[in-house]
Amino acid sequence: MVKTAEAGGKRPKVSAKEAPAFSSRVIKFGEDEPLKLDCGEEIAPLEIAYQTYGTLNRDRSNAIYICHALTGDQHVASDHPATKRPGWWTLMVGPGKPIDTNRYFVICANVVGGCMGTTGPSTLNPKTGKPHGIELPVITIADMVRAQAMLLDKLEIPDLFCVIGGSMGGMQVLQWAVDYPSRVFTAVPIATAAKHSSQNIAFHEVGRQAIVADNDWLGGEYLNHDTNPRKGLAVARMAAHITYLSDGALQRKFGRNLQDRDVITYGFDADFQVESYLRYQGSTFVDRFDANSYLYMTRAMDYFDLAGDHGGVLANAFSGTTTRFCIVSFTSDWLFPTEGNREIVHALNAVAADVSFVEIETDHGHDSFLLETTEMFATISGFLTAAARRRGLD
Amino acid sequence: MVKTAEAGGKRPKVSAKEAPAFSSRVIKFGEDEPLKLDCGEEIAPLEIAYQTYGTLNRDRSNAIYICHALTGDQHVASDHPATKRPGWWTLMVGPGKPIDTNRYFVICANVVGGCMGTTGPSTLNPKTGKPHGIELPVITIADMVRAQAMLLDKLEIPDLFCVIGGSMGGMQVLQWAVDYPSRVFTAVPIATAAKHSSQNIAFHEVGRQAIVADNDWLGGEYLNHDTNPRKGLAVARMAAHITYLSDGALQRKFGRNLQDRDVITYGFDADFQVESYLRYQGSTFVDRFDANSYLYMTRAMDYFDLAGDHGGVLANAFSGTTTRFCIVSFTSDWLFPTEGNREIVHALNAVAADVSFVEIETDHGHDSFLLETTEMFATISGFLTAAARRRGLD
Predict the structure, then answer these.
(1) What structural domains does chain A harbor?
(2) How far apart are CA B381 and CA B375, in angstroms?
(3) Count of A–B CB contacts within 8 Å?
(4) Which of A354, B38, B61, B156 has CB atoms 3.0–4.6 Å from A324's, for a disulfide?
(5) pLDDT averages per 10-residue partition of chain A, 394 residues
(6) Which B residues in the span 272-291 are in contact with A, Cβ-Cβ below 8 Å?
(7) Burial class (CB in 10 A: 0-12, 13-18, 19+), B182
């Protein structure tokens, strides 16, 4: 049930149930409500696991949809059920935070293809009684967003005050603005791009090859054999994790410092702190993420190309938009460099859209959008406050 | 035998034999001539496989030593015996080329720990009758250079007109200048650094973890069981290969072009050219390179820290040097950025060394030193010609 300020509302009850394993609400779409995919196939039945924070106002006009990144999930501002750690955007979302849950109703769902309760490779296919595995059709960013729109329909939220997210989340934000322009009042894509670059596809392919090279991947059937390609997934995460940081941040944080030793050991142990850190990142990741989901998420990003979907001209994608955009990039982000964010700005300018753009000076790399970044908080807080005034949310 | 211009020379014959498997000359150092390693251990016996090009002059003063990079070898300017492809620096080395074999006598040996004929993890340990495997002590850049100096002693080449190399080769060049200053007339370190960065250690660790994660690695004993961690080594190569290029070069070369298809397949095949290219790089690499050698080579680079070896002050390493340096970097090289090369220049300036520095504008990334780079050729050709005049080689 959607928590609203409307006492005893007349709207029909939605089919939401608690899914204790993920501490999330889950909405189920039946065989008669298939999710139509870009590849031409359908997913039905479909489950979407989601979290909400704050209260939906009487006008149902204060909803902010947060789109999560590749390895994120719906646990934005509450503890993660597997790791017990705080949600991934507690700095941004909460009472008095830039996305103020005293003012806004925040929704975030695990994307289709994910592994935190929404239908994905690791969830059971009711038709076979086994996990979907890699029999699940390949998912695109547009598919993810289409599922999110179906969720909002169920929740009877006609439109969104804001759609916001970083990285793969930013791709979804752009897709929302393109596919559902009338449902998006403001859009905040952060540290993203309108298409995945050649270098980024290359890094994703390395991660996928690391997973499928693991003997325990078993052609994607590992869940049926009680195994897990832990080593391959850890290597994929390690490679990706380097791309989320920056040369400068690694130098500042670790440099050539040794790990719990005074001298090098002339061996292959983790002599250096940066090695120890990376190994830890790899080993903890496999406890919370599904290897097949990693294949699907990376593929969705690789396939993302908004201009390609609109005759090769990005501006065409945004033609006639009335959404207000706030685009944020970070100087040291070499995975989604400012240049790619600026391309979006130029496309929006070409269709005379309402767009503001901020490049934030930081050495934290791509991960900056998840970190304590005062300038980003101030930017987004200010943008939302002004937009709320326009929308009469004061 | 060293080929010299000296007819019927009186110098003692060196113990050089043809090693048909590698088409290289091999010099063997006996039990009484151990290679002393930084780790405190020794390697004896030791074999060094090398190639020469051109003719040593009467004064034995025209020798250029080329130091190869991580996955390079001694086949600089002649066909590679395994791949049958031209040597890795045929653009730079040969008659009339910048390193002109009509004027200079060129030597390049496979480094210790390598896998092209010099003692390394894949060569037989005569004491056990089995490959050394990871029982071989860990090798440093200084160990490689010490072995090269032993080779030159055998060849009775007292000093070098030039030591030159890129990347890991550049590290050896710097180490030569520091450890044997009187034997190095000129030094040309290209696209390198005086220490391996935190980010570079991190990328190397990913590669190593990919190898040891492969079930066929067998704790490093794979050669004793007729297996080969092909998949792990291929993943390591793929990850590393991305770092040798640049975002711009990948964009220009591959962009989001599809491989032999008109539309995406909604699957995990290599839809994109860049994926196909990377997979090819991985699969061909494992045919010519030993996985354990990859561990040793990457570790040698990680451990490289010239300043660390000299009280934390890089300039101390070069104190009193009379070597002439020519340092070359590339604008798009993000693995060994210009900044790291400039640190070497600053250290040399601090000891009033003779140094010239050129940063070359190119989008080819780190691999630029292996490619057709007109400005690099002109720079090195000019530098060597001027130095040859000073040394009376005209």
Answers:
(1) 16-199+322-390 (3.40.50.1820), 203-299 (1.10.1740.110)
(2) 10
(3) 157
(4) A354
(5) 40 35 83 98 98 97 98 96 94 97 98 98 95 98 98 98 98 98 98 98 98 98 97 98 97 96 96 98 96 98 96 97 98 98 98 98 97 95 97 90
(6) 272, 274-275, 278-279, 282
(7) exposed
